[in-house]
Amino acid sequence: MTYIVTDNCIKCKYMDCVEVCPVDCFYEGENMLVIHPDECIDCGVCEPECPAEAIKPDTESGLDKWLEINQKYSAVWPNITEKRDAPDDAKAFDGEAGKFEKYFSEAPGEGD
Ligand code: SF4
Ligand code: SF4
């Protein structure tokens, strides 16, 4: 099993999660982060740190699509280990439904 990042991270990207991960397995896209499923050690410490409640264990049902997205993009986006400021408009998008369909970007983030 692994933990994965899901829809509500898109355009929120608060980044509280990256500071606590003991194995630095977060990767940064233009407007969301993902977890590398093969590097995550399932410690679970990031899950309660996410203000957007976007981090879930892949054992939850209905998350197959998100496991694939985390797997695919963690292989091509840059590693991120240090928190930066969230986007100014992050709160406006927190909790909005269907963000993947509306806003997902394949573009990589800056990383560190
Ligand atoms: S804390 Fe949550 S919303 Fe913020 S970057 Fe991490 S997974 Fe995304
Ligand atoms: S569960 Fe642990 S190892 Fe996996 S991403 Fe979260 S903090 Fe990192």
Describe this structure in a few short sentences.
The chain has helices at 16-20, 64-74, 90-93, 99-103; strands at residues 3-5, 26-28, 33-35, 55-57. By secondary structure, the chain is an alpha+beta fold. The protein has a single domain (3-84), classed as Alpha-Beta Plaits.
What is the count of helical runs?
Answer: 4
Give the class from helix and strand content and strand pairing. Answer: alpha+beta
User: What is the CA-atom radius of gyration, in angstroms?
Assistant: 12 Å
The H/E string reads EHEEEHHH
Shape: globular
- Helix content percent band: 10-25%
Percent range for β-strand residues: 5-15%
Q: Kindly report the average pLDDT value.
A: 96
* First and last CA, distance: 27 Å
Strand order of the largest sheet: 1-4
Q: Regarding CATH, which class?
A: Alpha Beta
Question: How many strands in all?
Answer: 4
In oligomeric terms, what are we looking at?
single chain
- CATH topology, anyone? Alpha-Beta Plaits
Bound molecules: iron/sulfur cluster
Largest sheet: 2 strands, antiparallel
Low-confidence parts, pLDDT < 50 over ≥5 residues?
none
- The total number of structural domains is 1
CATH architecture: 2-Layer Sandwich
Function: Ferredoxins are iron-sulfur proteins that transfer electrons in a wide variety of metabolic reactions.
GO molecular function: 3 iron, 4 sulfur cluster binding; 4 iron, 4 sulfur cluster binding; electron transfer activity; metal ion binding
Pfam families: DUF3470, Fer4
Keywords: 3Fe-4S, 4Fe-4S, Electron transport, Iron, Iron-sulfur, Metal-binding, Repeat, Transport
